[in-house]
Amino acid sequence: MATSDIAIANRALTKLGVARIISFGDNNEQARALQSMYTIVRDSELRAYTWNFSIRRASLAALVDVPEFDWARQFQLPADCLRLLWAGNFYPGPNLSDFTNSQWKEYEIEGRSIMSNLPAPLRIRYVAQITDPTFFDPLFGEALACKLAIELAESLTSSSTNRQLAWNEYKQAIIKALRSDAIESPADTIADDTWMLSRNL
């Protein structure tokens, strides 16, 4: 269902019992507060969970500049990448640093680059910064409205009760998203940890 940034913002204001806005440019306290925080809160919510609508794939070419040490190549993260899920079909497993002092990771992130010995092109899967609200899952829109209400409660209503109510609604929105698979389910298998691996030695 199509939505808009203003509709989500007004949903947050309605939860707090505050007057709605026409645009983020309105000359009132709630519009100014929303304009200052909307993008930050939206991106934070996208990064916090693996929402299905925000998952993207890419194949990255190696950069000309190579790392100073440890790694053979580096790759530039996409401009819209908020969180890397995996690179080169490699899922992070247990840290075996207590068993060996050798390099065990297949990649690591430094700044906006991925350092790796994996060959190019490097295939990645990541959480993208989705700015078009028409792509939002309806449950994400609801969770975002609740999170905005949490952030706005104290400044617009001076009510800790309103903030707690918004928190409760937010938690329910996340539970609904998990149940409906709007948030990607965890992997079926879990990598063995150090203790489990030691049992097989």
Annotation keywords:
single chain; 201 residues; alpha+beta; 2 domains; three-stranded antiparallel β-sheet; 5 helices; elongated
In short, what is this structure?
By secondary structure, this protein is of the alpha+beta class. It is 39% helix and 16% strand. A hairpin with a 2-residue loop joins strand 4 and strand 5.
Task: Describe this protein's structure.
This protein is α+β, with helices and mostly antiparallel strands. It folds into two domains: 5-51 and 137-179; 55-129, no CATH class. The chain contains five helices and six strands. The strands form two sheets. A three-stranded antiparallel sheet has the order 1-6-3, with helices on one face. Strand 4 (107-110) and strand 5 form a beta hairpin. Helix 3 (138-157) runs antiparallel to helix 4 (160-179). The longest helix has 20 residues, at 29-48. The radius of gyration is 21 Å and the shape is elongated. The termini are far apart. The mean pLDDT is 86.
